[in-house]
Every structure is written in structure tokens, then in C-alpha cells.
Specification:
Elements (H helix, E strand, L loop, with lengths): L11 E9 L4 E9 L11 E8 L16 E5 L21 E5 H4 L2 H5 L1 H11 L5 E8 L26 E4 L50 E2 L19 E9 L5 E5 L9 E2 L2 E2 L3 E11 L6 E9 L2
Parallel strand pairs: 8-14
Antiparallel strand pairs: 1-2, 2-5, 3-4, 3-6, 6-7, 9-10, 9-13, 11-12, 13-14
Length: about 300
């Protein structure tokens, strides 16, 4: 059971609707309440990344004492516009679709790269990854007393502030983000869902699954970045042929299972440090199109 940090309560009820850990597209919506104005002295909201159950030893330096690493999204920050519009307020009905890696201002106060590595590696741990929105606010108590901004805490359901997922079977994969229908009003770039429309269908994540291929790994026994494989939703693929070659073109690793990883060995012995070529031919259950990719991966011990 994950312990909810007190910051999970906030001046509005923000819900995580979908998340793609490969592309880092995130879809959130405001169900109720006013998330704040320029009176917020610190910022708009925080994204937190943790694990359930918590890790005994976290291999990334950006983890705090509360077992979460944080990304800060400040209010009305120059160059940061992900849907709050000219009013600079996240309020009831606002729906935001943005990319964490490309849309986080000032690299999340210095933690974005560490956050990315932890997300990429942790998605294949035995523990579930926990993604949460932790609202920054100026209210004085958890029971609705107004604070500096004059706003209470209307977020009575913090369960929807959380998302647990895994790409390697520790728990269910996350729901994919769904395209938002833009309906701007008065120049506002915020997308507001129409309550008279039928519920937006959830797209099939296997129709066009992402594949992310790391270009380096370090099989040196420190339990960090020990293995390599193309990162994807394993359940989507009907045919999968992934190979790694040495400089003489010899196949040193072959896999027909998208969830299988290479530990940097060949015939039971560690390969030398260096650059190795990989190739991939694959086809999903949803398409007859054969995907062909190739590239290089560096082994560093």
C-alpha cells in the first residue's frame, strides 16, 4: 500500500486519465475546484514518481526522503503553456494533454533527466511504478480552511490523482492518453469536454505501439541498467525477431519474445565493451505491416 503524501490533496481535483511511459504523453483533467491563481507562491502542481511497494534502495539520486522524485510545473511560467490558457488557472473542465519530456519547464527544477531514467528503468522492475499529481497550494489545513490564495481544499478524492502501472507484468499497463477535442473559447487554448457528447472511447494501445530502443547499457553488477531490450508493450506483438551482432556480423543474441532482455553475454561469457549492431523485424496482432528497425547499442562495464 502506497502512503499518500499530504501534498496529494489540493485546491482542485486533478485526475490522471492516461499515460504513455514510452512517449511520456500525459492526459489529465480537472474535475472540480479552482487550482489557484498568481497568488500561489510556489507553483501550479507537481508530478511525483515512486514505486509500490517502495524500493528499499533507490538507485537514482533525485529520490527524496518521502520515496518520491518530483517534477515542478510552475504557474504562469514564461514559455510554459500546456492548456491553462490566458487566465493562468486550471479550473473545472480543463483537460490537458502534454509531453513530460518536452514540456517540463526548466527541466523540472533539475530532476527531469533523472526522472526519465527512473521511469524508463523502473517500468520493468518487479514493483509497480506510481505516478501521481501532488498539488501545491496555500491552504492552511486538509479540511478546507482558506490560505494565502483564499482557496480551500476541495479535492476529496485523491485516489484518481494516482496511477500504478508496469510494462513487465508487475501490475496492469497504464491507460493510453486519448486525443483531446479542442474547443477553445475567447482565445483560451484549453480544451473543454462537452458533457452532452458520448464518453470518449479509449484507443487501442496496440494499434500503433511505440518502440523505444536504448543505445547504451551497463551490465556491471550494480543492479542499474543491467540489461538491454527494445522497450514496448510486449503483449501487442505477434511476430518479433530481435538480433544483436558483433563487428564481424555474427549474431550474438536472438530473441522472439518482446519481454526478453539481453544481459551482455555471448555463449555464457560477457562481451567486450564497445558498440554492437541490433536489428528488429516485428508485426503486431493489429496489423499485417512488418516493422523493420536497426541501430547500435553500446556496452559499458
Amino acid at each position: 500500500m502506497v502512503l499518500y503524501p499530504l501534498m496529494s490533496w489540493g485546491q482542485c481535483d486533478i485526475e490522471i486519465l492516461g499515460f504513455d511511459p514510452i512517449s511520456t504523453d500525459l492526459l489529465i483533467t480537472v474535475n472540480g475546484g479552482q487550482c489557484g491563481t498568481e497568488a500561489d507562491s510556489i507553483g501550479e502542481f507537481i508530478l511525483g514518481l515512486g514505486f509500490s511497494p517502495p524500493l528499499d534502495n533507490t538507485p537514482w539520486p533525485c529520490f527524496g526522503d518521502d520515496e518520491f522524485m518530483l517534477l515542478l510545473y510552475p504557474l504562469d511560467f514564461p514559455g510554459f503553456e500546456i492548456g491553462q490558457g490566458p487566465d493562468n488557472i486550471l479550473q473545472t473542465g480543463d483537460t490537458l494533454l502534454f509531453n513530460i519530456m518536452s514540456d517540463t519547464p526548466l527541466a523540472g527544477s533539475g530532476t527531469l533527466e533523472c526522472w526519465r531514467v527512473a521511469l524508463e528503468e523502473g517500468s520493468f522492475f518487479d514493483e509497480c511504478v506510481v505516478l501521481t499529481i501532488m498539488q501545491i497550494n496555500d491552504s492552511e489545513t486538509l479540511f478546507g480552511d482558506p490560505g494565502l490564495g483564499g482557496f480551500p481544499y476541495p479535492d476529496e478524492n485523491i485516489d484518481n490523482n494516482w496511477l500504478e502501472f508496469s510494462l513487465d507484468g508487475a501490475c496492469a499497463p497504464p491507460p493510453p492518453p486519448v486525443p483531446v477535442d479542442p474547443e477553445p473559447a475567447d482565445g483560451d487554448t484549453t480544451s473543454v469536454p462537452d458533457p452532452t457528447r458520448p464518453e470518449r472511447p479509449v484507443s487501442n494501445a496496440c494499434q500503433d505501439p511505440c518502440i523505444h530502443v536504448p543505445n547504451v547499457f551497463t551490465p556491471n553488477g550494480d543492479n542499474l541498467n543491467e540489461t538491454w531490450r527494445p522497450t514496448t508493450l510486449s503483449k501487442c506483438w505477434e511476430d518479433w525477431d530481435c538480433r544483436v551482432y558483433n563487428r564481424w556480423g555474427e549474431t550474438i543474441w536472438l530473441s522472439s519474445d518482446p519481454s526478453e532482455t539481453w544481459n551482455g553475454d555471448f555463449l555464457g561469457s560477457p562481451v567486450s565493451n564497445g558498440v554492437y549492431i541490433w536489428s528488429l523485424k516485428a508485426r503486431t496482432f493489429e496489423s499485417k505491416k512488418v516493422i523493420e528497425m536497426s541501430g547500435h547499442v553500446t556496452v559499458l562495464r
